[in-house]
Amino acid sequence: MPVTAIRLTFDAVQDVLAELAAIWRTGGTAGLATVVRTFASAPRQPGAAMVVAPDGAVSGSVSGGCVEGAVYESASDVVVSGVPRLERYGVSDDDAFSVGLTCGGTLDIFIEPISRSTFAHLDRVLDAITEHRPVAVATVIAHPDREWLGRRLVVEPESAAGTVGSARADAAVIDDARGLLAAGRSEVLSYGPDGQRRGEGMEVFVACHAPRPRLLVFGAIDFAAAVAQQGAFLGYRVTVCDARGVFATPARFHTAHEVVVDWPHRYLAAQAQAGAIDSRTVICVLTHDAKFDVPLLEVALRLDVGYVGAMGSRRTHADRLARLREAGLTDAELSRLASPIGLDLGARTPEETAVSIAAEIIARRWGGGGRPLSETEGRIHHDERDSASVPVELSNI
């Protein structure tokens, strides 16, 4: 049986949620600003959030600094007035441009007061995120009747709580929110005033909180510790697995969320069977030992995952490919293997190698070529190649 040591950590996203929850639990009112829509080269994506506490303290960010001051003032105002508002900041807005959105993009930001009376089911959202369960929050951000503004539904795959204003509207939003939740996407949906599919007037921002994508690191070596650190920094839920219990210890991998003592191929197969592997999962095989690598890669290369990379020299790679072909893997399956792992950065140390591996993972996820930006033209940011395979930012409420 595998032996698992689990360690929970909190990243910047969870810090925002923790701050909001602390205010909510004490009966206070916080100002919450959430990016709900972006155009052109906006600095943050939908779901980015900023919380203004009753004492004026700030957590999170909606623009990376461009319009934080103006949004702070608006968030403070809605706490006093109790009236939510949808605001746009961009180059087409002279006032917004003057406060600093010089990146050339446009942001739609919904600003609202959050308290026990305005968000009765916040605890359900927090529990789902803590337990790595998918949950979506659908909030009315525009409506002809201002009484509907800020109403919301908390939607899970098998249940829902709250209301956006009517039974008809609830049914439509719940159905669509579950579709977005399955795809791992957050976006604004449009309806008629009572939830009519072919109408306009009501806009609902559906913020999807998907569980963090997983990074599975096989091989309890120094390089694995560095890769685990990079993975946690990038927002992955990191597991380090090795069959050798003397090496696979939480003390050696303090940035990993869990450390597992088990045969790698057996652990991966069991995780796949349990439904714990998906198209966002990243697998890094760092053992460069055939007795571990080959059985593990036989399993990994037949799974629908985002990335499979294996460490080793070119000679090791050639031998590994020969063994995998003997094991029955096809050329199509073998073509999914990134080996030798990482981009050519000239890396030497474990930390530098981990950066090169992280760089390749990012390039594979977004379709980047790995070239210096100074040698390229056109858009800097790549469009999503497959939204279902991209980690979703969990900073939306």
From TrEMBL:
Residues 24-90, 129-192 form the XdhC- CoxI domain. InterPro entries: MoCofactor_Util/Proc, XdhC_CoxI, XdhC_Rossmann_dom. Residues 374-387 have a biased composition (Basic and acidic residues). Pfam families: XdhC_C, XdhC_CoxI. Residues 373-397 are annotated as: Disordered. Signal peptide: none annotated. Residues 215-361 form the XdhC Rossmann domain. Gene3D superfamilies: NAD(P)-binding Rossmann-like Domain. This is Xanthine dehydrogenase. It comes from Mycolicibacterium aichiense.
